[in-house]
Amino acid sequence: MCVTSVGNEMSCHSSFCCESRSALLVPPGWIMSTSAYQRLSQGDGTRVQEIGDGATVTGYRLSSLKSALFWILSFLFCGLPYLVIRWLVNWRIKLTCVPSELAAADVVVITEEGGDATLCDVKVEPINFLPDQFATSRNGVQRQTSQTRLRDSENGDSVFKYFEFQHEKYIWDDKKDAFRRIEGLIDINCQQIAEDFRGICDNRRKQLRQIFGANEIYVEVKSYANLLVNEVLNPFYIFQVFSIILWSADEYYYYGACVVFISAGSIITTLYKTRQQSLTLQQMAMGSGDLMVSIRKPNDEEVEVNCRDLVPGDILLIPPEGIIMPCDVVLTHGNCIVNESMLTGESIPVNKSAMVPSEEPFNCDSHKKHVVFCGTEVIQPRFYAGNKVSSVVIRTGYATQKGQLIRSILHPKDVAFKFYSDALKFVALLFCVATIGMVYCIWLYVLRGSSWVIVLVRVLDIVTIVVPPALPAAMTVGTLNAQGRLKKKDIFCVSPARINFCGKLNVVCFDKTGTLTEEGLNLLCVVGVNEEEPEDATEFVEPVSDPKQLPISSQLLRGMATCHSLTYVKGNIVGDPLDLKMFAATGWNLEEPNTGAETSRFDVLTPSLVTKDDVQLGIIREFDFTPQLQRMAVVTNSINPKEMIAYCKGAPEKIRPLCKSVPENYDKVLDSFTMKGFRVLALGYKRVERMSWHKLQKVKRDLIESELTFVGFLIMQNSLKPATIPVIKELTSAKIRCVMVTGDNMLTALSVARECCMIPSQDNVIIVEAFEDGTVEYKLAAQHYEATEEEDNGIGQPDSPTVSNNNGGILRTSGDGDDEEVPLVQYQPDPVTRRLSKRFSIDSNAEDTVIDMEKLVLVTDVRADILDGSNYHFAMTGKTWVCLRDNCSKSEMQRVIAKGTIFARMSPDCKQQLVESLQEMDYIVAMCGDGANDCCALTQAHVGISLSEAEASIAAPFTSKIADISCVPKVILEGRCALVTSFSIFKYMALYSMVQFVSVLILYTHLTNLADLQFLWIDLVITCTVTIVMGRIQPVKRLVSQRPMASLVSFSNVFSIFSQILICVSIQFAAMFMLKQQSWFTPVKIASGDDLQTLCWEATTIFSVSSFQYLIIAVVYSKGPPFRKSFYTNVEFLMSCIVLTASTTLLLVYPIGFLGDWFDLMPTTLETQPFRFTLLMFPAINLIVSIIFENVISTSKLVKRIGKLVCRPGPKNQYKLLLQEIENDKYWPPVKT
């Protein structure tokens, strides 16, 4: 590495040490990433810059003149301008700031992709040392030299500028003329990490501490006073305060006092819950607290420091007793057994190994086998040859993996749901309607000669009626109830806003292993080759069900015994379930030196031994399995004979190119097993030149994993979980598309998809293969294999192998409904091993049939000309997916996605990209996985469901403690119920406000209004009670193909609401008309235009009829099936309706003395009693007509036809249009048979 000093250039072995004679330049890539940002404006004077995730930053400077004028206006208008700029950032910028270049800005505005804006102050701090790209003078002039002296004599002290946004620090880079996010150790290769770090001296650590900040994931827990101010200044409560002042001015003291009491209770409850949630998250985030850790300095001195003071580049030493990791580190010496369940939900301990030097660029995802993440528990460190387990700190604080997950909880991704935007549109529509009433009210009171104060109070009162203050809270009732019900079903949700998305899901992506199938695998058999034949002429031998019967000298057996990552933890062998099954099947023993004192393993050159009788094999080097390579390897050492042999195990398609030669029927034998759903691993070995242990640790992986000798296949059986088939069938019958996204083999995935009914037996599969030149091939997948010619002899003939298990019988496994014969052959140690070119049965449909493996041919049983748009499914690998994204047209890729069902050999990144692509096509996507390698896709999906034993995993919005996919229908059912309930409550609240609006206008016309307690009865007793209990209705038990609506402004919804408004208004007018026909009725007379009389027959009539209407609307909008149970199953709602109906009837028919006085109701007389009973007829008519309109007319074909004429017909979602296009294109896909 080359670094620059004052006046000369010098080379240093490590630029991460600190020398007293000069300050050394830290390489730019070591500090932070340069690739994450793109400037929107080029050249000098950049004002706007993109900072990733669709967000932009814009520069401004505070204007002293504007700020002074603003505060004067705020004082004159009682703080109203301050409230406006508190809610609307763009207004704050316009009123207090002027545009500025980013380089000179002292405030910036970050505008997120959804349109939300945040104002951040740009801070300037002096610093003694700073890499050139961050160094500026105090006057903002860029330093032109590349010197790194502590002080610039010409321009003054060095400073650095930065702002913080959502717990991330962005620092100004003068050379790039842009802000750059500080991420830690980025843009560096593996060799630099493994070899170039020697520790950091104290002065440099202080400087880096200032740049990167404290190594802590601090979640602020605000004081109750702070929370109270933020809560009270919320627009909702400001509107409440405005309403209370207005009601008090109108002498509605009882109602105003009740609202104050309820609001106070709501605020107290909200403050308590908010603070408790912050405390819980703070405890989760803090983790290590003030833990003291050991680091190594450049002079090899070991010192203890507080974990908060760690900075990227520190050499952290992991103690023998383990540790809760306080930051993200890369291991450079030694291994660790780590529990990552806190981050991933995966309960199986993971083995982490030291970074291998190479020129490969370091990436946390591709090299995660060497990374110990913050928050994970190091159960057991393993250190060798006198070297302690050491690591390099790469990220600290919120830049760590855990920090990013905590940040995603604090600042969740804005998930735009049409329901909420439509709700705002509908409120605006209602407000427009109310404007007409406001104009009428002004005209009415001006005509009467009322004072301007009364006119203003009456008009503003209309506003509080049309836009009910409780509307935002009411819309969350259904979601919160659904969240509570899910918790009782052991499904935990950390993002309630996602529940409504569950109601509109139309595609669910499933991981395979551990999700659709059991986590564990059983070793079915091994299919080896004749190791005595020349390598270029090897042929398969008979399958062997019990590997213990293989000769102890068999390289296949030795590979199974050594090629794994198993280890001892607390006296138990732990590791990958597949490795555990494979090793157990060999009958060998695993031994580790000092297994009773596993944390004190110094000076051990051979970490593990596997033994059998007098054979001992030491595992002296391990190359970990990675999803990218899809293989692992080990190097073993044996004493007798003295030789080193490398064994490599992995996906057959990855092992084959590494082998010198393979049997001719390699693919046929492989496909014969994968098509039956078995998981197949290939194994090869290679003799390695003997070398020292230290030299072996530096050997590149490519040299070991080459020129292999193929020794055979391992056939693993992975059975479906009991819940898989019924759930897939239920989802399919509900027309919810199911997709398999797995890292496993294509044919294995296809077989599992057939078995679980994801692909119906009558449907065809088309294999999609894309190439780098942009071409795409479509080939029909084979349905089965057949021999090219018949033979007479069968199982049991002299020239046929014996197909049996250990008991001599045929072993059967579950398949597509029929029993399947599996080739399990007892090993017979004959001098000449029989070859697999002899026949054995794998056909589940013919017990007397055997197959010659050398004569197998693919049979498709389908012609391309009989394909249509509905009877085929696409299947592809991760390699094809990458080519589709990078080299093919977007339309071609989207067509493939629209018909894709199987996505095999998909890496975690590819899974996330698939979810993103589905979302771009307007799908509402769910992802269900085990939480380990599915984290990216789980967080990207609209609905991510992690199957984890943890109560709540931060890897996904939903976590199910029941480790199967039975949780998926439950989540969808609750989502549909919550969405329909949210619609119902919104429509109820909208109708409630409009009915009261009409009632008040009618009464204003008749010189009267509702009394204080009458408003109290309607708004609090009836409306609040009904709103709360309406949301308690439960979902139905089974999914249906129909989906709930997601648009409030659809024609059917608008028709429903306005028809109900018309019905209620008509009933009120009819009741007033009947009142005026009564001989005893006398209209209200007032002395002046400012007076209102509440004790009159007009107010009593409207109050009585409208009170029934609020209950009727609630019943009408409490529809049951197909998404919810019938309303009468909601006991709280039913009892509330009965009690409120009885109480309202009592108030109408016989308001006994004190009730009549309280409610300002006209007293009962013999003359007026018949009219009171007659009024009961109007609610009855209202109920019947409303039910008919809602359940018959609104859903009739006539209304639907009118809706199609008014609205744009046809599908609006992109994927629906695409499917129609595919259906009409008879020449696509161009299938090859």
TrEMBL record:
Query: What are the protein's UniProt keywords?
Result: ATP-binding, Magnesium, Membrane, Metal-binding, Nucleotide-binding, Translocase, Transmembrane, Transmembrane helix
Please state every residue range assigned to the domain named P-type ATPase A.
299-409
Pfam families of this UniProt entry?
A: Cation_ATPase (PF13246), E1-E2_ATPase (PF00122), P5-ATPase (PF12409)
Subcellular location per UniProt equals:
Membrane
Asked if the Swiss-Prot or TrEMBL record annotates the protein with the keyword Translocase, the reply is: yes
The way it spans or sits in the membrane comes to: Multi-pass membrane protein
Look up keyword Transmembrane helix and say if it applies: yes
- What residues does the P5B-type ATPase N-terminal domain cover? 56-173
This protein's major location comes to membrane
Residues passing through the membrane, by range? 68-89, 227-247, 253-272, 426-446, 452-480, 989-1007, 1013-1033, 1054-1075, 1095-1117, 1129-1153, 1173-1193
* Positions of the UniProt region annotated as Disordered: 787-824
Top-rank taxon of the source lineage equals Eukaryota
Under InterPro entries, the record lists: ATPase_P-typ_cyto_dom_N (IPR023299), ATPase_P-typ_P_site (IPR018303), ATPase_P-typ_TM_dom_sf (IPR023298), ATPase_P-typ_transduc_dom_A_sf (IPR008250), ATPase_P-type_domA (IPR059000), HAD-like_sf (IPR036412), HAD_sf (IPR023214), P-type_TPase_V (IPR006544)
Polar residues bias spans: 799-808
Q: Which PANTHER family match?
A: CATION-TRANSPORTING ATPASE-RELATED, POLYAMINE-TRANSPORTING ATPASE 13A2
Family, per entry: Belongs to the cation transport ATPase (P-type) (TC 3.A.3) family. Type V subfamily.
- Name by which UniProt lists this protein: Cation-transporting ATPase
Source organism of the structure: Orchesella dallaii
